[in-house]
Amino acid sequence: MNITKRIHAIWPAVLLAFAANAEVLLKDQSEILGKWNLYAEAAKLEGEKKDLSIEWDFKSDGVLNTKSIDTFGRTKTFEVALKYSVEDGMIRKQSTPGREKYESCKVIEKSDSDMILKCTYLFFFLTKK
Questions:
Q1: CA distance 34 to 69
Q2: For residue 81, how many other CB atoms are within 10 A of its CB?
């Protein structure tokens, strides 16, 4: 098989690989407003997921209210308000409350009811409440 035929044979697979990891660019915060259930996190997109029980509530005033439920029952719930914005199609959120350090989260996949984010170190898997 000559080189041209080989390239034409593998080209669809290459395009499919890039499309599978394509980012979704958000137009503005209206696309994420409301309550989301953060149900899992993982170091790799296709890696082992750690189950979580956290509610993210994106408010229109640029506040992300997070509420985690302690599955062991020691503290019951833990709530934190973080600042966020949508810039360059990504979610830019405060890393730590009270500090002006931010991380950018790329939207890997998004539908009306599901969203996968790639933040600095982890992938987050969310479903709309």
A1: 18
A2: 13
